[in-house]
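During the second year of the project, the team shifted from modelling isolated chains to modelling whole assemblies. The rationale, set out in the original proposal, was that interfaces cannot be judged from single-chain predictions alone. As a representative example for this report, we include one of the complexes processed in the last quarter. Its constituent sequences, exactly as entered into the pipeline, are reproduced here:
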Amino acid sequence: MSTDVLIDLLQIIMLTLTTVVVMLVAGFKREHGLVNVLTTAGLAASLLVFVFVDPVLPLQATELLYFDEYSLFFSALITLGALSVSILAYPYFESHNSHNEEFYILLMTATLGAVVLACSTHFVSFFIGMEMLGVSLYAMIAYPVHAEKSAKFPLEAALKYLIMSGLTSGLMLFGIALIYALTGTMFFNEISPAIEAQDLASSPVIIAAWLMIISAVAFKLSLVPFHIWTPDVYEGAPVPVTAYLATVSKAAMLAVTLRLLLISDAFQYEALMLVLTVMAAASMLLGNLLALLQSNVKRLMAYSSIAHLGYLLIVIIAAASIPGILSVESMGFYVAAYFIMSLGGFAVISAISNSGKELDMISDYQGLFWRNPWLASVMITVLFSLAGIPLTAGFMGKFYVFTNGLQGSLWFLLTMLIIGSAIGLYYYLRIIYAILQQPGKISKQDPAMQAIPFGTHAVLGSMTAIIIYLGVYPMPMINILQSLAAAF
Amino acid sequence: MIDLLWLVPTIPVIGFLILTFSCGKLPEIPAGIIGAGSIGLSFLFAILAGVDFMSMSEAGIHSYSQTLWTWISVGSFEAGFTLYLDGVSLVMMFIITGIGFLIHVYATGYMHDDPSFARFFAYMNLFVAAMLILVLADNLLLLFMGWEGVGLCSYLLIGFWFKDPYNGYCARKAFVVTRVGDASMALGLFLLFASLGTLNIQELMVLAEEEWVVGSGIAIAVTLLLLGGAVGKSAQLPLQTWLPDAMAGPTPISALIHAATMVTAGVYLIARTHVLYELAPSVQYLVGVIGMITLIMAGFTALVQNDIKKVLAFSTVSQIGYMFLALGVGAYSSAIFHLMTHAFFKALLFLTAGSIILAMHHEQDIFKMGGLRKDLPWSHALFLIGTIALVAIFPTAGYWSKEEILASALTNEHGGYLLWLGGVAGAFMTGLYSFRLYFLVFFGKKTHDGHEVMGLHLQGPLVALAILSLIGGFIHIPVEEVFHAHAEEHHVSLFYQAIMIGLPLLGVLCAYLIFIKQKLDVEKLAGSGFGAKMHRFFFTQWGMDWLYDRVFVFPYVGLAKLNKKDFIDSIYNGTASFTRYLHSVVIETQTGQIRWYTMTMALGVLLVISIGVFA
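Output from the structure prediction step:
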């Protein structure tokens, strides 16, 4: 193994090391603060490692992992998300009168899985990464199950996620097995030549295999008709875990999916494109309709994520007919923007919640502006961004989606995008309306009036700053994305 | 220092931002210091810029422009955030910041103990900033932004004590009526842009002179539309009805916005675009006629009012009528000159009236005052100075400017005996109603005790304004270069001179005979059948409000009532309820039951694969 490979693997090594250290420390001494600091520091260190990794790219490190700027970008995003979640988790679980230390081990293994996904160009690493992420998430969702008083119904959520996830893993494996049986390879880039060589492109088995893989991916991304678990799991999980689920797990899955579809030339299958189009349209419409009168903010975020993934799917579908560079650039931007705004939104929910009581009904946010203007401003910025109002990152993202749709002449999907966005505006504004209303009585015990720890402030502040920065001056980000997209 | 010109409008904006974001938590003293101090600083920078400008002027450069940034750039159209300083905007800038500063200082005393002290100064600062943008703008779009900004502030400040619904009504009335004028002005701007392809004022003047024929249709249309904006803002016929109601605001507002600065914006606009008006002589004559009729009508109305501020309000309408008269006869520099002197003495009168109102515990009815000269010696002296300046008694500031206007009305080619006679008659009316007010307040039988409210921040600005009212006529305003052709001296024969000096004095004498010597029983006259009718007619602004209610307001309200259930709304409401219905359908799928969830998964896979394989 050459030094370059070792350097490339440095981030994964850093994450693994942190996992082991955290495990050992937690084994010897239960100390929530210490474990949290170690985890946070480990994640921050693996972010810093990217500086060393960058010069030696791109490189195949072992058969399973491929490092290039693309994987680096998504790994960075994932690590940033995990870092934020780790910071948010401390005050949340501090009120939890049970053992909290193992949560961070799970957080680390999940992150490891997510990074593996982002670097994967092989079905084995795809599956391993997915399962590492998934299995850790089951436990993370159910984590407060032993607490005397838990905020939600974590066990129910975890069980639902587990059972349905199990179903999709089977589906995924079946699809991979079929492709392997016909082509004899598991490398993404070897699939297309093998299929061409054997003239299998119109074989129903290949198409069925692809559709099974896409269905599994669609489950993880909660696209219609595999979306049904999303609100229940989002609601039942503790807020930091919901934040993780909504950002890290989705970004990792998107990273590997776009790479898979682009380099295995899956866009040639019209059936696949048709299925994706149906999924995109249905997700945009149903996601927004489901969110319309929702009174729980976490469920609302779940429905909104269905719609947003539907928007994103437009980029993937357009990739069939426009240059790959633009697709990767657009998707990178949208994912980053969605990532940041979701984190910001959940950070606000997390800031006024704890493991004993979560404030996630819209009515809890009534008059937030008058009780805590800072939190309210962050939330309003996030909601504006989610709704795609100009001068926010969300607007730039939506603009990209629109450009892609126009260039790909996807008129039907663009119509759905416009209808969906219009409906979306309604429920985002509903929350803003509640936030700006005059509050009833303000009590000293009001959670929104309590002191917020510095770390949470930092997360809130940086997410808001990034949302506005990307909306006002997106050029630096676009330059980064264009350079990493050049590989496609 | 002239390159610091941008600070002049910026500092009030900063003051506004600080005061606004203090969310009313700022105590009175710092709020007052920020509010008045920002205008003071702004005045200081205005002086520095002015000194530089004057030395530039001596060197032969008569204008200065400073581009801060490009505001809008669409196709060939570009509007910069560009400030333009020449003689006229310099004078306006000094009036706004200087008089504005004095009024701000006064207001720190007047608004003492008001619960919304900081809000008051926030609005005031915003107003000053908007007004400065209006006069410093180098293109009409930016000017329009300032124009609308001052309109907004005027609305906010008239309705400052919004807890009384009547004040809200007055604010709304002012806003809506001036909006009629603003719509006309906006149309004028569109037409100008469509015809000449730019909105830069200096370019427009050059282009218009090159491309338009004197008296052509386009020149008439544009100037008429701009005139619509000007009469709205400056409360001239037929849009003058809002100004008296605007007196519902705190008195410093009446002094700053509704006497010294904002209401003169129309005069400024016409002076600024005077080249266009010269291309449409008929419209220019109309400006003069509007001014003349307004000044006489307002004079009659002022004569019968019983609210001290309303008398002053109608007097303002009347004095702006003089400025319009001057514009109409092409005496632009006289109009700007009168604008300045009027700002001095009318601000003085309003602020002194404010002191009187404070002393009388917010009593504004002049018939409940009377005999106050002993109780309120300060106010008495200051009010007298303001009044003689208003009446234009030699050699106060008002005399010089009004004399110039009347002389131009007589000698200028656009003028004539008609306009002159109107102006002179107005001068008589001014003497009569001003001294009626003065005598009724300070002489006669004492009915209520007054108690002078003293303080440096109250009397200081008043004394400064009083001095300006007395000697302000000797200030030379450097506007020759802007209105180059129109700076010649007027020579009128001694006969006319005597009339112009004498008639105001005659008005004063009449007022003396009627209200002090009681030679004429006013009450009896007002009580008689015809007299009562006339009194009522004058008192209600010649029935204008009544007429407008019948012609515009009632039919409009009727129409609105007819279409209460707007049928177009039902399209939107229908869309909304349809969406809600769809939501109620799809939300049924979220049962929370895992058996149903897994089934949807299985069905989904089946669906996906069958689409793929069979399609």
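Strands of chain B lie at 64-74, 77-85. The first strand of chain B starts at residue 64 and ends at 74.
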